[in-house]
Amino acid sequence: MTTERNRKPVGVWNGTEIKPGESRNVNLAVSESYSGMTMKIPIHVRRAVEEGPTLLVTAALHGDEINGTGAIRRLIQDEELKLLRGSVIFVPVLNLLAFDRHSRYLPDRRDLNRSFPGTSNGSVASRMARTIFDELITRADYGIDLHTAAIRRTNYPNVRGDLTDPKVKKLAKAFGCEIVMNGKGPRGALRREACRAGCPTIILEGGEVWKVEPGIVEAAVRGILNVMRTFKMIEGEPVRAENPIVMDKSRWIRAERGGFLQFHIKPGDIVRKRQPLATNTTLLGKERSVLVSPFNAVVLGMTTLPAVSPGEPVCNLGRLPDDIDPTDLKQLRNAGHIFEDRISEELGSNIVVVKPPDRVRSSTNGTR
Ligand SMILES: [Zn+2]
To answer: How far, in Å, from the CA of 362 to the mean position of ligand 1?
Structure first.
């Protein structure tokens, strides 16, 4: 747990003082460029007059994942957002060196999000990670880190966190996303190491790289505001998904043959066991193989590039718990979940989704 000894005050940043009730921009020097210039992360800090929790919201830890950057910008520009208590630290771009290259990785090809908590005498990534950890994580009570799918993939919005930690569970619930994936995250990931250091942190996965997508920005903003409302940092009641689903397991379904995919599902779809996901065809349209779902699932993510080789990932399925029936779930979503449906439709508009041929539908029905 974070002790008082290594907690840093939210009101003092390298000589700049931010008093209760003030909002200020500060810069955090994290590295130096090849030309010797100091690389500084721009940060927006808002403090309420009344004391309360400090929430850290970060984006573009993978430098090409900028949906969260768009979401944070919207919140910073929102002049109606009046903080009643506590503080918010907004970091629109955490990995400045990677962001400047439109890249997931640092110039030394390392993944900053596998380098936490870092060391002061290690690699470029490790040193940056250490500075970020010492200057940001140590000032925060809770963290929300915004991500997207990796290159050539898209994600239906889902929150990820270690639900065995009651504070993380509370934070994930407060965010109010329909899908919550339970897990610690990989070693060296910011959220895992922040949790270990006593700063409960969740991530949002949503959308694609290199884009600021309306539905994903809305999902991120809604979740962040929900957290702030739950912690009484701002006025208002949270607007959450009515039927949140917690899942422990997910699996990438991979292509069995090389060829050109025709998708039968879109991100966010709820699928039954053995439901066709995609048909692999030759370039002249001849069917080669049909991929089906191995279990009842929600489509968390999928490729946006329909040309695949054997073994390449096609879609990422979150496994529905046995006590949840996919048909019931679909009905619940159709009945009230206009927001979730809309985002799924929006993400699906980027790909061609067709019904599987009748023959395929009958042949895969219960036979695999
Ligand atoms: Zn990421």
So the answer is: 39
The amino acid at residue 261 is: L
**Could you tell me which of 242, 224, 206 has the C-alpha nearest to residue 66?**
206
Distance 203 CA to ligand 1 centre (A): 9
At 15 the pLDDT is 86
4-230 and 249-363 share one fold:
no
**Predicted TM-score (pTM) of this structure:** 0.95
pLDDT at residue 236, rounded to an integer: 97
Q: Which residues of the chain have pLDDT under 70?
A: 1-5, 336-337, 360-368
Look-up: residue for tokens 């270990």? 196
How far is Cα 43 from Cα 54, in angstroms, rounded to an integer?
14
Ligand 1 center from residue 357 Cα (angstroms) = 36
Q: How far away, in angstroms, is 11 Cα from ligand 1 center? A: 29
Output the CATH code of domain 4-230: 3.40.630.10
Instruction: Tell me what pLDDT residue 337 has.
Output: 61
Tokens of 116: 């936490």
